[in-house]
Amino acid sequence: MSAQSAAEQVPHLKNPIVRLFETAAKDPQRIALASNRTRLSYGEFASIVQRCAQRLRVHGIGPSSIVAVDCEPEIGAVISCALLQLGATSTTIAAQLLPAVAGQLSAIVTDAVDRGHPVQRRIVLESRFFETLDATARLMEIAELRPDEVVRVVFSSGTTGVPKGVPFSKTILEARLASARANWMPKLPFLSMLGPETVTGYQTMSAQLLSGETYLVARDATETLARIAEFGVRSIKTSPAKLADLIRARRDHPTDTWSTDSLEVIQIAGSLLSPAIALACENAFGITPTILYGSTEVGTVTRGAFSADQPKRLGTVIDEVQLEIVDGNDVPVAPDGHGRIRMRRDPMPEGYWLGEPSAGTGFLAGWFYPGDTGSLSPSGELTLAGRTNEVVNAGGSKVNLAELDLWLSEIDALSDVATFQFLSELDEPLLGLAFVSETAIAAEDLERTIARRVSGVRFHSLIRLTSIPRNALGKVDRNRLTELTTKDSHG
Question: Which of 306, 270, 304, 302 is nearest to 288 (CA)?
Answer without folding.
Answer: 306
